[in-house]
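note to self: dont lose this again. the chain is below, predicted strucutre after it. 286 aa total, dont forget to put it in the shared folder this time
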Amino acid sequence: MVKIYVTVFSRPEFIQIQYNQLKKYCRDDFEYIVINNSKNDEIDAEIVNITTENSIRTISVVKDHKIPNVSHFNALNTAFNVDVKNKNDNDLIVVMDSDVFPFKSFSFKNIIGDSEVGGIYQQRQNTEIEYLCPIFTILTNKVDLSDIDFSWKVYTDCGGSTDNFIKSHNLTPKWVDHTAAIDIETGYIFVNNNKVNFPYKKEYRSQFIAGSFFHYYRGCNWDEQQPSYHEDKFNFLKYFLENTQEYVLNLDPIVHYDKAHAEKGWEGKDHNYKNYFYLNFIYIFI
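---
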């Protein structure tokens, strides 16, 4: 059994879409669990309605939203304390953002393979710190999870303290291939999409994970985009998931990374130059 934990803060409509996509494409037996970290009472009510209608188990947490990242890791730590630690008898524990949506057949077990832990690679300015990011993390029952901590750490965001967990258990995580937050690569990844009603725009800065998941990215709007931005982007998301056959997606190793920032160019630093160099080379010579 695979247990999938998803923290929901501000977009309850993502729950139904994500759950439907998992049921459609996940080849593993799984339980989908929503960590209710709602930002206000209205969203809390929506989460309760959707999860009740779908018989989705929820874990409610004490909500402290003064600092979004702190709120996120507190919610995850609470869920792990009450539901995971000291009783990890499941094959896999998966932590995903609420705006990560599978769009083709996959298996979490195949993604992690023989590794003990894995997920999206995160490393910030301090090159000695690397950690499991809650965007997409897979944990197996081969490792003791009693001391895992999703708190942040200097130079990191939510999950930064899993650097301690990795080092203390002498783990070698499997870093899952992804496309970083795609902007300049748009013309390469989305090929011949002129006929699509809702074409991808590079300002969406979304991400493909393991060739099977579309990460909407910034779904809780922590960067405070205008409502029109998310209306447009949400239309793209729905159309893409319903009509993936109309998109010709080039997700080959050229634009995938194992060890790269999940977000390209964090704070204007440390761009993934491999993509920039290669794709500029393509645009010049094709």
